[in-house]
Amino acid sequence: MNFSSVCGKSWTDPTIPKVNVTFILKSGEERTFKTPVGVLLLEAAQHFNLDIEGACEASLACCTCHVILDQKTYDLIPPPCEREEDMLDLAPQLCETSRLSCQIVVDKNLEGCKITLPQITRNFYVDGFKPSPH
């Protein structure tokens, strides 16, 4: 499934399956959302107005979409590529189950997963610019 063809209509299209994804916010609050299969985890977080940046717009050039997965979910999804691992090396609060949410496509394996948003991220913009999601 192509991300660009899915992202616009997937939130309202009843034919696209959805899975329950729980985000653990910086405050510790847990919020669960029905998330369409085929979208990026980053896009889902931004769609639900969660505090996650994605400064490079999913081009693997930053670590501002760093999230921490529960172990079960981490074990179920494909491993990170070398470029993602390089970007994760720059992420503050790196954990064994850290991933970049721009590299995770929501699928049925994410049903019931818990995704923790770290307390801080590192943005390399010096002017404080924070791009808004598209």
Give short descriptive properties of this protein.
134 residues, alpha+beta, Ubiquitin-like (UB roll), 5-stranded mixed beta sheet, 4 helices, 18% helix, disordered N terminus, iron, 2Fe-2S ferredoxin, 2Fe-2S, electron transfer activity
Polypeptide structure, described:
With 134 residues, the protein is an alpha+beta fold. It has a single domain (3-116), classed as Ubiquitin-like (UB roll) (Roll), CATH 3.10.20.30. Helices cover 18% and strands 19% of the residues. The chain has helices at 3-6, 41-47, 71-76, 82-88, and strands at 18-24, 30-36, 66-69, 98-100, 113-116. A 5-stranded mixed β-sheet has the order 2-1-5-3-4. A hairpin with a 5-residue loop joins strand 1 (18-24) and strand 2. The longest helix has 7 residues, at 41-47. The protein starts with a helix and ends in an 18-residue tail after the last strand. 29% of the residues are buried.
| Secondary-structure content class | alpha+beta
Give the second-level CATH assignment, the architecture.
Roll
Q: Approximately what portion of the residues adopt beta-strand conformation?
A: 15-25%
Give the proportion of residues in helices: 10-25%
What spatial order of strands do you see in the largest sheet?
2-1-5-3-4
Backbone CA Rg: 14 Å
Regarding CATH, which class? Alpha Beta
Mean pLDDT: 87
Unreliable stretches (pLDDT < 50, length at least 5) are 1-6
| Shape, principal axes of CA atoms | globular
Domain 2Fe-2S ferredoxin-type: 19-121
GO molecular function: 2 iron, 2 sulfur cluster binding; electron transfer activity; metal ion binding
Cofactor: [2Fe-2S] cluster
Keywords: 2Fe-2S, Electron transport, Iron, Iron-sulfur, Metal-binding, Transport
